[in-house]
Amino acid sequence: MPTDSSTPVQAKNNGDARSTDHIVGERIRHLRQARSMSIKELASDAGLSIALISQIERGISSASVRVLAKLADGLDVAISDLFEPALEDAVSDRIVARVHERRHIDLNRTGIHKELLTPFARQPRLDLYMMTIEPDGSSSDEPFVHQGEEAGVVLEGGIELYVDGKRYILGEGDSFRFASDRPHRYLNAGSKTARVIWALYRESE
């Protein structure tokens, strides 16, 4: 049975954390059921434990960025699709998204806030995020891989990026790009909140 190295952690005892965890859990369950997948099948495809997925779907555990990436690959969707249903575009070539339309997710356990700047369900997927990473915030304790390619630029503060086991220290104005199937993780080891524009590209679902 596939397992995940992270230990499920109960959501913080406040309304916002419970709301975020429940919204994410309900979205994952909806996507899984829409594909006629059992939790066991998703666990096998995502490389996660049945117990962890069950806890996330019920909103009693918070998922890390690593776990969300594995779930997205298991469901064959973009990571942004785990936030909430995509906007229904009245026009297929819609160009502009207003501030109030942005979707977001707070990964309270990991100190990361992700705001989706491009809420359009297009193929191929090119999702642009505003990432806020609090001091000691991290994607996960272990490196992970998923589909696609990513790139970004640090706007404020700094982060440590690990790709294939190599450590890169990025400060304000520094940028990066790498294939997402290379083992990677990131963290904010500084004392100042970091803000990063982060892009994820995915060819198809």
TrEMBL record:
Xref: Pfam families: Cupin_2, HTH_3
Disordered: region residues: 1-20
GO MF term list: DNA binding; DNA-binding transcription factor activity
PROSITE patterns: HTH_CROC1
GO cellular component: cytosol
Keywords: DNA-binding
SMART domains: HTH_XRE
Domain of life of the source: Bacteria
Tagged with keyword DNA-binding: yes
Domain HTH cro/C1-type: 28-82
Protein name as annotated: Transcriptional regulator, XRE family with cupin sensor
Organism name: Nitratireductor aquibiodomus
